[in-house]
Specification:
The protein is an alpha/beta fold and about 260 residues long. It has one domain: Rossmann fold (3-Layer(aba) Sandwich). Helices cover about 50% and strands about 15% of the residues. Strands 3-2-1-4-5-6-7 form a 7-stranded parallel β-sheet, sandwiched between helices. Strand 1, helix 1 and strand 2 form a beta-alpha-beta unit. Helix 1 crosses helix 9 and helix 4 packs parallel to helix 6. It is globular. Bound molecules: NADPH dihydro-nicotinamide-adenine-dinucleotide phosphate.
Length: about 260
């Protein structure tokens, strides 16, 4: 699976699944625009990508996906001359019952996890049509399954799944593919950033052995490799797919 000469944008490349995705594309020869707000983290990921492939061409774009979509696309195309793959990975998580949460949480999650994907997709589409490229969105098992106290997040990811399928149809006649991955629990900073305490996280990880059919959580590499596959020329007949990378979590049903 080679991405030699291909240009890839990875949003949320400064941490977790996005960082592993940047590395997966770097190993396979892509030119990569690394997008995130934390510049120190972006630089650390740049070093990891260089360590994985010293020839990797990397462009750091410190940016907020909720406000900088145009700059992200333009800077990438100005620097690399084209765009082949857009990975919409940046995302946030927050918990709370409908009795407790406020509309600010809802707006914030929908803005980051969904609205930014709309904008980046719209702006990237003309470039992807030129290269016959494709899009991979990072959704979640929360897109296909429901969890208590997680309504804003689940709603945002369910919308990402439906958006993926709709845009796949919009762009199919242009031979631009659009897919998503739906990870189960993966060890990253996202849970701590959502405000989950260390104790609650440890308990969540213990329970994850039972909530995933394979009896374990996933790794960032397992998700990143699936993203790279969907973006590759080995997946040219796959579009509109939402692919679980979740150790069987979405297939399970409590008894
Ligand atoms: P992390 O918290 O480790 O990484 C999130 C990334 O998103 C960071 O690079 C962060 O960058 C970026 N980001 C968040 N908001 C913005 C913004 N406004 N502008 C630019 N970048 C932003 O989490 P994960 O790696 O776990 O999450 C990646 C994706 O995977 C998310 O969409 C998440 O919903 C999804 N996912 C994760 C699962 C898990 O268990 N970890 C399970 C299922 C799905 P910075 O802070 O530098 O801006």
């Amino acid at each position: 699976m080679s991405f030699n000469g291909k240009v890839v944008i990875v949003t949320g490349a400064s941490s977790g699944i996005g960082a592993a995705t940047a590395k997966a594309f770097a190993i396979r020869g892509a030119k990569i625009a690394l997008v995130g707000r934390n510049v120190d983290n972006l630089k650390a990921v740049e070093s990891d990508c260089k360590a994985a492939n010293s020839n990797a061409e990397l462009l750091l774009i410190p940016a907020d996906v909720t406000v900088d979509a145009e700059r992200i696309i333009n800077k990438t195309v100005d620097e690399f001359g084209q765009l082949d793959v857009l990975v919409n990975n940046a995302g946030i998580l927050a918990y709370g019952s409908i009795l407790d949460i406020d509309v600010e949480q809802f707006d914030s999650l929908l803005n980051t996890n969904l609205r930014s994907i709309f904008l980046l997709t719209k702006l990237a589409a003309p470039h992807l049509i030129k290269t016959q490229g494709n899009i991979v969105n990072v959704s979640s098992v929360a897109g296909t399954r429901t969890f208590p106290n997680t309504s804003s997040y689940c709603t945002s990811k369910a919308a990402v799944d439906q958006f993926t399928r709709c845009i796949a149809l919009d762009l199919a006649s242009k031979n631009v593919r659009v897919n998503a991955v739906n990870p189960g629990v993966v060890v990253t900073d996202i849970h701590a950033r959502s405000g989950m305490t260390e104790e609650a996280y440890a308990d969540y990880m213990r329970r994850a052995k039972e909530t995933h059919a394979l009896g374990r959580v996933g790794t960032t590499k397992e998700v990143a490799d699936t993203i790279a596959f969907l973006a590759s020329d080995e997946a040219t007949f796959i579009t509109g797919a939402t692919v679980p990378v979740d150790g069987g979590k979405q297939a399970m049903c409590p008894r």
